[in-house]
Amino acid sequence: MDINQMNQIEKATLFNRPELMRIGYALLFIVGIVLYIYSNIGDIPGGFMLITAAMIGGYMAMNIGANDVANNVGPAVGSKALTLVGAIVIAAIFEVSGALIAGGDVVSTIKKGIIDPSVINDTDTFIWLMMAALLAGAIWLNVATALGAPVSTTHSIVGGVLGAGIAAGGLGIANWDKMGMIAASWVISPVLGGLIAAGFLFLIKRTITYQNDMRQAAKKMVPILIMLMAWAFSTYLALKGLKKLWKLDFATAAIIGLAVAMVIFGIVKPMINNLADKLDNNKLAVNRLFTVPLIFAAALLSFAHGANDVANAVGPLAAINDAILHGGVVKKASIPLWVMMIGALGIALGLALYGPKLIRTVGSEITELDQMRAFSIAMAAAITVIIASQLGLPVSSTHIAVGGVFGVGFLREFIKRRYARKIEEIKEHHHNADEQQVAQFLQEFEKASILEKSNMLEQLKKHKAEAELSKKERKGLKKVYREELVKRSALLKIAAAWIITVPVSGLMAAIIFFTLRGMMLP
Question: How confident is the model over 42-51, as a mean pLDDT?
């Protein structure tokens, strides 16, 4: 073996070393779960099943951290408001805090009421059902993370429960009306998130970046936008993040949120004025005013996610624990502290070990994000959940966030395409004019406000009929901007993963259930 071959082997070993270390840390976490439960449960009937379920619950929690948490911090990282390490630290702290502080003492064992547990009278069958659902959901999340596709963890566990439930109790066990609503959320969540994110970005462009004096416009609008953000997030946390500690109706939550927002407005307005005076009058400088609000948004979204979605990891585990210790099948199960700790620590560990891949996907691989665009996505995440909860619509935080990313990307495409069309019209109107005259007009057009741009185009049309681009030119422009601003391959991959999440996790859960039943029956 020559020296070059040895060098190649060494490089390949170094490349695989970080992956082996990640697997090692994950295995240590699982071993720690086994040792803790074994030392605490004593010699109880079904102890082996509880240990196995806890291992699967830890595996599920790590996959939630690796896949789902990226949606909360991805836009902030992509816009460079947060570093990757900073985002992981903030998300881990607030995910764990949300789970432990506001995760609740009782969890629904059958997520979203998609199956009727009364059909399952046998305790062992119920335990096998929940284990199969948990393992199937975790495996699918692992596969999706490896493929770089952000998917809904709620839909993963819903598919698992549905598939295992049908395998255990037949088609009649399923609540098909609920499943229809969940299927509708595949469209509702991303569309609502995309429209709201695009709407906020358009508002920011019209009121700040399209103005001649961006600094003055920012002094006026940024405090108002931050106030709206404080209102939305305070209401969001009151309704969703703290609902298991303090149950509020929408009107009360909105009033509390408005009070918090007004206090925030009074604090940030003088701060924004002072910061704006020190900035240059350009878009890049004004963007910095959105950095701190984005950091708070990432933290608050992570807290709410930890409070709500940790149940995806510990709900089935809590049900199995309750069934083993007390016997019987229940719709609600108490959550022991050790169960909640498995969910919280697993999510934090999964985020640290495998989260960066999905954070990069959401933050930079779909479309280019800056602080204004990321701010719009964060606003969409909170407002969409509030609207949907009041309308009784099931929505996915993953679908909302990713839909928001696509929404701002498609809005940018639309604006760029329209702008390119206007430039071509100007050149057509100056077809026989001196090149210096055309360049001067384009320079003035570039500097003009949106109203002045409109007036300049109107003046051109008075002198000559509107110029038309050829079909080939228009198609070429459209293709250029589409490729530049939004990756269609990412859109197709993510949409495909969303559509197959419930069927794939359901099919795997059914196979795992039949395997478990075959192994456990005498």
Answer: 78
